[in-house]
Design a protein that fits this description.
Layout lengths: L5 H16 L7 E4 L7 E5 L17 E4 L10 H8 L1 E2 L7 E2 L3 E5 L6 H4 L11 H8 L10 E3 L11 H20 L5 E6 L2 H11 L2 H7 E7 L8 H8 L12 H8 L3 H5 L4 H4 L3 E5 L2 E4 L3 H7 L5 H8 L13 E6 L4 E8 L10 E5 L7 H4 L8 E7 L13 H19 L11
Parallel strand pairs: 1-7, 1-8, 8-9, 9-12, 10-13, 12-15
Antiparallel strand pairs: 2-3, 2-6, 4-5, 10-11, 13-14
């Protein structure tokens, strides 16, 4: 566990003592990001590189995700060579030789507010700023982040280490806030990660430490975009004129989390997702598809994650669900009769969803046995990433926390409106 520095800890304890005396302790919140939602730093000294202009020695810790400057050709191939994983042994997935990585600012918010050093790519920052307007809420004390290396899944060694850190962070946050139970707010893949975590904890532990769980845009049954990522590459929103999807594919094929986000066969059945060379491929055909298109270690990677659930309806805590809908969302991919398959880019046929996650996956949230509230949003800022910027979503979470604070103090009142 990463400990807070002694000087800062003394400051936090002094603030806690004052808040307890004034009866102003609040219900703390921990933010759990989704895939590509955490800053990741790297330190590398490599024996080789794909090109003469690629740096072999970083000279110290440097930002790998999201390094926008690294994405510009031709240096993107240098970045891919550093960031991709070694999957030669699927039971021991790790960084390539000579590379160390770590998430940035675990327990605090700098690693999840913005993803890049220029602050072009916003993640949780607007939500954090909104919650700071509530009385008693402070970054690092009652608003905390739990970033993780999104390349890995919870059943990897790195994923298992994160689960331990998350438990200690929740317990520490509980104590820092006068033994106030914690609300977890997860986005995207952070939701199946949260489900996996909660399923490992005892009912007594959850009763003591967890006040509730807010699921934002949960990928509870996978997303069709993951198929395109593995077949032809996904540029994560960056223009293909700048970033070649086939170059990104080299990294994506080594990430177990991409395989974990494949549409769930039990949910989608025989629905065809890939149409190529006169054949249709459904969620029942992943291993056959990966073998036919010769994805290195593809069948083995799928075997590694296929029994790791994305969803479980019985997690033992109160759940509040919010997601977008009625946005064009990739659903099927037509490659036609093309000898270049899967190296050609497909024609994408859209369905309903939040622009990234298909509606069938999002709506699994309604099946939680402890569901307390379920809301959908449409129109402006209803897409998968933009939902984190919506004023009404931020207000909803602020109102929930305010209500919890009033209940803790035995007060009755109405939630106030934040000023943005």
């Amino acid at each position: 566990m990463e400990k807070i520095g002694y000087t800062l800890l003394a400051t936090l304890l002094a603030a806690l003592s004052e808040s307890i005396q004034n009866n102003t302790t609040v219900t703390p919140v921990i933010l759990i990001p989704g895939i590509c939602g955490s800053q990741i730093d790297g330190w590398y000294v490599k024996d080789s590189a794909p090109h003469y202009y690629c740096q072999k020695d970083s000279g110290g810790w440097t930002l790998l995700w999201l390094c926008i400057d690294c994405m510009i050709p031709p240096t993107i191939s240098c970045w891919i060579d550093t960031f991709k994983l070694d999957i030669s042994d699927v039971n021991n997935i790790k960084n390539r030789a000579g590379v160390q990585t770590k998430v940035n600012d675990f327990g605090y918010t700098d690693g999840i507010g913005y993803l890049d050093e220029h602050h072009f790519v916003v993640q949780f920052e607007k939500l954090i700023v909104g919650l700071e307007k509530l009385p008693g809420y402070q970054r690092g004390i009652s608003i905390r982040g739990a970033p993780y290396d999104f390349r890995y899944t919870p059943n990897t060694k790195v994923g298992q280490q994160y689960m331990i850190k998350l438990r200690y962070l929740i317990e520490e946050t509980y104590e820092l806030n006068g033994n106030s139970r914690v609300v977890l707010v997860a986005h995207s893949m952070g939701n199946p990660v949260t489900v996996q975590f909660l399923k490992t904890m005892s009912e007594g532990w959850k009763e003591k430490y967890i006040e509730g769980y807010v699921a934002l845009a949960g990928v509870f049954g996978g997303a069709a975009k993951a198929i395109r990522s593995l077949l032809s590459g996904e540029t994560e929103g960056m223009p293909q004129i700048i970033v070649d999807p086939l170059t990104m594919r080299e990294f994506e094929r080594t990430s177990p989390s991409v395989y974990w986000l494949l549409p769930n066969p039990q949910l989608f059945g025989d629905t065809p997702f890939v149409l190529a060379n006169g054949r249709n491929y459904s969620a029942q055909d992943y291993k056959t598809l990966f073998e036919e298109v010769k994805i290195p270690q593809g069948p083995a990677m799928y075997d590694f994650i296929k029994d790791l659930p994305q969803f479980d309806k019985d997690i033992g805590v109160d759940v509040y669900c919010i997601h977008g809908k009625e946005q064009d969302t990739p659903f099927q991919f037509e490659y036609g009769d093309n000898s270049k398959f899967p190296d050609n880019q497909p024609t994408t046929l859209n369905g309903d969803g939040d622009g990234t996650v298909n509606i069938q996956s999002l709506e699994l949230c309604k099946q939680f046995t402890t569901l307390k509230d379920y809301k959908t949003v449409t129109g402006f800022l209803a897409t998968h990433l933009e939902i984190l910027q919506r004023k009404d979503v931020i207000q909803y979470i602020a109102d929930l926390l305010t209500k919890k604070n009033l209940e803790r103090r035995g007060e009755v009142g109405r939630e106030g409106e934040l000023v943005f």
